[in-house]
Amino acid sequence: MSAPSLPSVPHDGTDAEARPVFAEERKILGLAASTWPGILAPLGIGILALFAWEWAVNAYQIPNYVLPGPKLIGQTLVADWALLATSLQVTLTITLQALAAAVFFGVTLAVLFTQSKWLEKSLLPYAVILQVTPVVSIAPLIIIWTDNNVTLSLLICAWIVAFFPILSNTILGLNSADHNLINLFQMYGASRWQTLRYLKLPAALPYFLGGLRISGGLALIGAVVAEFVAGTGGSASGLAYRILESGYQLKIPRMFAALLVISMTGIAIFLIISWVTHLLLRHWHESAVKREN
Amino acid sequence: MTDIATKEGATKAAPVVCSIRGVSKQFANGTLAVHDVNLDLRHGEFLSLLGPSGCGKSTLLRMLAGLGSPSAGTIDWPSVDHELGFVFQDPTLMPWANALGNVMLPLKLKGVARADAEARSAEMLALVGLKGFEKSYPRELSGGMKMRVSIARALVTRPEILLMDEPFAALDEITRHRLNDDLLKLWWERRFTAVFVTHSVFESVYLSQRIVVMAARPGRVMADLAVGGPYPRDDQFRTSADYAQLCRIASDSLKKAIAL
Q: Do B76 and B180 reside in the same domain of the chain?
């Protein structure tokens, strides 16, 4: 966090001298010095574990179809990359489309709910029902209803899973605007639209982003789980189908490689959303500030 | 009463900008927050509402701002298009907007063109002593500076009446004195009508031409004191014998209000 450039204040005992001081951190390779241990420590543990795993697989002669070593998994990942990349593209497309739909419907419904208490009272219970029903159990129904359009059914399943955190967090955020600020907007005769645009939506932003971070991971899980249930087959198959297929064919290293790709995708989605959150909130929200006490 | 603190004092001649007649406010839970208040606000005067907590001074102020209507009585504004400014106890700034953006808010809500609004807001920020801090976000400012931004926001529309609800209660004494001085300077130059809610005898005497002392349960007006000290006021006034005497009178009046 770099200190904002502001005029220097003469020492005259004014309130300007009492401004808070923000921690300015030394940077190493573009990242704050204090963030590096958080990256290096788990990385070190991970590398150690991989070595131990590789050693154990060799030392105890564990067959590949029970537990392949990390080296073999890495080699499979490279060798089968063309196949896995095609599947990744399918899964990622569904994930991102579902997330986009979740953002659109989540935010739109949240805004409508805050404009009309009746709408919220009548519809929110159904959103909750949608949330608590396991997606695995409704996936077969959705496949029937979408007339065997597999891509659409996967999209709907992933959307159902990703939609609720955005809806409930955005509702909470829209209702958390400072009461005195609402009064101030009233005093200046602000319209509903102005109150929404200039007060409620900005106040809801940190909450929305919190929901988005949860939903990003859930959209991916939804897309994978739905594919496990639906199965796709044919050329346009996602990563879940690759895992099932590899299992049937006892190509266990490829199964692990597909699993690795899913995990990495989830981590990438999480990091991107965290980065966007930081960019949007760094100027004002307490969660993005480091203070020197 | 002495000659420097007389009932219904010097500002009698100025036109009435707001007349409060028989105003009561009862909350839904039965609490009678304000009971039968009669008061005339006169153009350009600096009036303080002084009283213990729970005397309904804030409720009365909020009703003047149009936040909540009286249960009984009327609040009458002779001028149809009366512009109001309001300063809350907390700075109540939007954390996502910088100082300039916060001051611009009332103009933006009124549909003033952006360039014009920006120029006027920057000028107002300079007037409260925050030139150079236009781009600073509230979290980068001290408590006193945030309150200055809040005052700038209230004054940017050039209101005829500025309503203030214990704006400096949370600040340290040095900062409070400085803000009191700066507020008086602004009032002296711009001549708005100021209504200042406070529970501090010293603050009310230092600032006001007129102190309305209120008592609690139910909230009602106990005394209407004129403060005759000349303006502009500064530290000399703060340490004068007149000031001390005025404080004693106001303090006695407040004590009587609390004892009831």
A: yes
Please say whether the beta carbons of A113 and A171 come within 8 A: yes
Residues B124 and B170 reside in one and the same domain: no
Give the C-alpha separation, A94 to B249, whole Å. Answer: 76
d(CA B82, CA B160): 7
Using CA coordinates, name the residue in chain A closest to B99: A284
Measured from the Cβ of residue B188, the count of other Cβ atoms closer than 10 Å reads 12
Q: Can you tell me which residue has the tokens 């995708």?
A: A265
What ipTM did this prediction achieve?
Answer: 0.89
Sequential pLDDT tens for chain A (293 residues):
344 455 566 566 667 777 887 777 777 877 778 888 888 999 999 999 999 999 999 999 999 889 999 999 999 999 999 999 999 999 999 999 999 999 999 999 999 999 998 998 998 898 888 888 888 888 888 888 888 788 898 999 999 999 999 999 999 999 999 999 999 999 999 999 999 999 999 999 999 999 999 999 999 999 999 888 876 555 568 999 999 989 899 999 999 999 999 999 999 999 999 999 999 998 888 776 666 65
Inform me whether the C-beta atom of residue B169 falls under 8 Å from chain A C-beta atoms. Answer: no
Q: Would the CB atoms of A202 and B96 count as touching at under 8 Å? A: yes
∠ CA A92-A93-A99, rounded to 5° = 85
Q: For domain A69-286, give the CATH superfamily.
A: MetI-like (1.10.3720.10)
pTM, to two decimals: 0.86
Which of A9, A184, A186, A200 to probe by mutation at the B interface, max B CB count within 10 Å? A184
Residue B76's H or E segment, with its range, is strand B72-76
Buried b / exposed e across A53-88, counting CB within 10 Å, b at 16+?
beeebeeeeeeeeebbbbebbbebbeebeeebeebb
Domain spans of chain A, in order of start: 16-62, 69-286
CA A152/CA A143 separation, integer angstroms? 8
